[in-house]
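subagent[fold] <- orchestrator: predict structure for attached chain, return tokens only, no commentary.
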Amino acid sequence: MDHPICPLCGRPIPPDARQSLHHLVPKLKGGKGGPTVLLHQICHNEIHATLTEAELARDFSTVEALRTHPRLARFINWIAKRPPGFHSKTPGGRRKR
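subagent[fold] -> orchestrator:
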């Protein structure tokens, strides 16, 4: 059976890996019921540690846009070398909503 692929980092998401759904437009910014993507939890954490809800809604509402952000691009480069089930704490806190 094929595992889903994380659209941010391109690694498979095994069933035992920490994972979550990311709203491409934040729920607080009108994205409730909108499109979601399944991500590794660590990838999802990194998105929310990097960008505010307003930035996500305004400029980063697609996976393609997220992948162009300099900090996320560095993160993707780093995480790509880790095993699919890898998880660690995201450095720094969550950004303000």
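orchestrator: received. Logging for downstream: Residues 59 and 65 are 7 Å apart (CA to CA). The mean pLDDT is 93.
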